[in-house]
């Protein structure tokens, strides 16, 4: 491609509203432009990278036994109502009506559509297992789009679905998909981890996220410092044990604590350790209120609370709901003298608190001398807190450390969550009707593009891995008005193309400094500069990744390029 014939609007200044490196560089290097909040146009360079990523995805998915199809982005509400997600998915689902007042959703995901498609066509176990995938634009009305294409309202995703007659068949395909994902992200050149995860609104069990390690990641990975254990912080179980302090139990005493609402404030005000404070938070778990207790130095993990109850929705009770339910404002809530209508659950660490402090369910008052088994009614103890750095690793090897990660892929064992709700059944070998067992496998293609840039950049711009680079070679004549330079550049460009390389020729009548700056910004793996020694058949080769540059004769150039890039 000749650079004068394509569209690469580079910028010299860093855009003020771009917070992370990938967003800054994709704007500066002319890869994307914003249309509206969370919605971007992918310009020619970005489109080429996306196609390279998609090609890797297609090859690995096909190798895993999946077939590609394409489903509609606009989905009728009836399908989502069948699964129950029309009511539970939340405001991220973009909903609309047609001229006949029929309700639709723009596809945030495609479990409902694929399930309806397969249930209408597959009736026998003989047609199973079946794995299907697509690469398509998805829509989610993010409350706060940010970081460019890392969190947008419109994005490109590969989603795959598998259907099975047996759990063993699902396990086998899940393992194939897991391996395919490892291959995909390895081929993209990414430093990533596969971590135990929560399925969220998707439903199902046994899930893994594929996290690209990055300081700008919005997810926290908990990993062992000595083993291969890794999990999303939401899913990492706490195996720590707690011992009660050996001291005499004090009587329960209500004390005035004016305007002391937070654990930090009450700890300072009463001169007690945070570990001796009991944090009490009221949640609405589906249609019930649950008061959840954790130690003052811990945080409630709402995912664990959701899983404890097998709930669909878990959310913090509002101030109004707290006042109505506990006759108290947040900040002074506690588990003592709570109505029987409110279930009280506690993290394991609470059982070891001796002579602690908690809210008195009365504004500006707390209890001290709290001993929970004596003073309150706990319905059950469970692991309800977030794991912390320094805790024991859940696999028993080493201690937990944290890292930030960008989620680029997620694999789920959905089980019969959708097939039962939507009546997707088959006849087994005994002629009995059974629900299909499902798996689901997603990759954020446009997010992978940004994640690669987060890991591959320097002070001058992007440094593309060869496997996904928009072009392999950047040919730059120093002066396009010089006949020898122009002729040699055109000759090399044509011959590189003939040999199967993807080449960008900078034929613009720009100053050489501008060309070099743009070249470094765009970040193609190899740059070939045709300058003053063109008449002697000598060019300069620069490797973008290492910064190494050297002169080489045109007669030896192709062997050198082959050595640098492969065939």
From TrEMBL:
**GO MF terms, alphabetically ordered:** aminoacyl-tRNA deacylase activity; ATP binding; catalytic activity, acting on a protein; proline-tRNA ligase activity; transferase activity
Q: Which coarse location class applies to the principal site listed for this UniProt protein?
A: cytoplasm
State the Pfam families in the record: HGTP_anticodon, tRNA-synt_2b, tRNA_edit
User: Would the keyword Chaperone turn up in this protein's UniProt record?
Assistant: no
Q: What is its EC number?
A: 6.1.1.15
- Cell compartment(s), UniProt: Cytoplasm
Where are its TM segments located? none
Q: Which family does it belong to?
A: Belongs to the class-II aminoacyl-tRNA synthetase family. ProS type 1 subfamily.
What is the protein's known function? Catalyzes the attachment of proline to tRNA(Pro) in a two-step reaction: proline is first activated by ATP to form Pro-AMP and then transferred to the acceptor end of tRNA(Pro). As ProRS can inadvertently accommodate and process non-cognate amino acids such as alanine and cysteine, to avoid such errors it has two additional distinct editing activities against alanine. One activity is designated as 'pretransfer' editing and involves the tRNA(Pro)-independent hydrolysis of activated Ala-AMP.
- Please report the name of this protein according to its UniProt entry: Proline--tRNA ligase
């Amino acid at each position: 491609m000749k650079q004068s014939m394509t569209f690469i609007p580079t910028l010299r200044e860093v855009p003020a509203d771009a917070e992370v490196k990938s967003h800054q560089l994709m704007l500066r290097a002319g890869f994307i432009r914003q249309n509206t909040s969370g919605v971007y146009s992918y310009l020619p360079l970005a489109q080429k990278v996306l196609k390279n990523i998609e090609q890797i995805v297609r090859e690995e998915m096909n190798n895993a036994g999946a077939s590609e199809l394409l489903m509609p982005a606009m989905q009728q509400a009836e399908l989502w109502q069948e699964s129950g997600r029309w009511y539970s998915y939340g405001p991220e689902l973009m909903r609309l009506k047609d001229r006949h007042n029929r309700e639709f959703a723009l596809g945030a995901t495609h479990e409902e559509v694929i399930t309806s498609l397969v249930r209408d066509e597959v009736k026998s176990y003989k047609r199973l297992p079946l794995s299907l995938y697509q690469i398509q634009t998805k829509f989610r009305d993010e409350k706060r789009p940010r970081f460019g294409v890392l969190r947008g309202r419109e994005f490109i995703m590969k989603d795959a679905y598998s259907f099975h007659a047996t759990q063993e068949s699902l396990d086998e395909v899940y393992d194939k998909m897991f391996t395919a994902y490892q291959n995909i992200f390895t081929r993209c050149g990414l430093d990533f981890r596969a971590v135990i995860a929560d399925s969220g609104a998707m439903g199902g069990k046994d899930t893994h996220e594929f996290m690209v390690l990055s300081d700008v990641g919005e997810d926290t990975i908990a990993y062992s410092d000595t083993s291969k254990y890794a999990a999303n912080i939401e899913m990492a179980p706490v195996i720590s044990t707690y011992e009660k302090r050996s001291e005499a139990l004090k009587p329960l005493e209500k004390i005035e604590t004016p305007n002391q609402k937070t654990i930090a404030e009450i700890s300072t005000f009463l001169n007690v350790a945070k570990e001796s404070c009991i944090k009490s938070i009221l949640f609405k778990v589906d249609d019930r209120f649950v008061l959840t207790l954790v130690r003052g130095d811990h945080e409630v993990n709402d995912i664990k609370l959701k899983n404890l109850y097998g709930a669909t929705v878990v959310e913090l009770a509002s101030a109004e709901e707290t006042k109505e339910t506990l006759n108290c404002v947040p900040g002074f809530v506690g588990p003592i003298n709570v109505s029987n209508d409110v279930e009280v659950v506690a993290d394991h660490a609470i059982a070891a608190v001796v002579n602690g402090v908690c809210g008195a369910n009365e504004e500006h008052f707390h209890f001290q001398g709290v001993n929970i088994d004596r003073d309150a009614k706990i319905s059950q103890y469970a692991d309800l807190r977030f794991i912390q750095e320094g805790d024991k690793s859940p696999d028993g090897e080493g201690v937990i450390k944290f890292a930030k990660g960008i989620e680029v892929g997620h694999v789920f064992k959905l089980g019969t969550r959708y097939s039962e709700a939507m009546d997707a059944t088959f006849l087994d070998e005994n002629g009995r009707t059974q629900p299909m067992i499902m798996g689901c496998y997603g990759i954020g293609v446009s997010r992978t593009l940004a994640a690669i840039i987060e890991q591959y950049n320097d002070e001058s711009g992007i440094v593309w891995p060869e496997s996904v680079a928009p072009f392999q070679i950047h040919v730059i004549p120093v002066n396009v008005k010089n006949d020898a330079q122009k002729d040699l550049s055109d000759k090399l460009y044509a011959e590189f193309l003939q040999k199967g390389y993807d080449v960008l020729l900078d034929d613009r009548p720009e100053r050489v400094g501008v060309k070099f700056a743009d070249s470094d910004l765009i970040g193609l793996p190899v740059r070939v500069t045709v300058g003053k020694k063109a008449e002697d058949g000598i060019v300069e080769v620069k490797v973008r990744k290492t910064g190494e540059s050297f002169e080489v004769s045109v007669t030896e150039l192709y062997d050198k390029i082959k050595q640098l890039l492969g065939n």
